[in-house]
Write a structure and sequence with these properties.
alpha/beta; Rossmann fold; 44% helix
């Protein structure tokens, strides 16, 4: 079974939304069952709920994020993942610095979706208004649609 791991800072906004949305997109578009989709945070406090605005933003897309609980990124999670998609270049560099052997499987989400570009970070909506979360969810969803066509071709 293949594993895709999404990583952000606290695992209560971006990476948790990406995890839930990719599960939903895969279910809709190709029904792939032989894949494990996870998320974690570099500085996460384990067992925290997703942020209210993350939950509400995905609820508008008919995706339930209410049962999500944050996880701290561990060496084991990095080693077990076949593909690691981070929300920022900084997250990517922290993983590679900490576990150099992961270099060939760590990308930012947008880098993997669109190729190298200057705009490869997904901004952190944490603590902002719901409109910022909605925009973040849209940005992640568009990149995930590209990931599906690339990863599952």
């Amino acid at each position: 079974m293949k594993t895709i791991l999404f990583v952000c800072t606290g695992n209560t906004c971006r990476s948790s939304m990406a995890e839930a949305m990719l599960k939903e997109l895969i279910n809709k578009f190709n029904g792939e069952k032989n894949i494990n989709i996870l998320s974690a945070g570099i500085w996460a406090i384990s067992d925290q709920k997703a942020s209210k605005h993350s939950i509400d933003s995905l609820k508008e897309k008919n995706i339930d994020l209410s049962s999500h609980r944050s996880k701290l990124l561990t060496k084991e999670l990095v080693q077990e993942a076949d593909l690691i998609l981070t929300m920022t270049k900084n997250h990517k560099m922290q993983i590679i610095h900490g576990i150099p052997a992961s270099k060939n499987k760590v990308y930012t989400l947008k880098e993997y979706a669109y190729g190298p570009s200057k705009d490869i970070d997904i901004s952190d909506p944490y603590g902002q208004e719901i409109e910022i979360y909605r925009a973040c969810a849209e940005e992640i969803e568009e990149a995930l649609k590209k990931v599906i066509t690339k990863y599952f071709k």
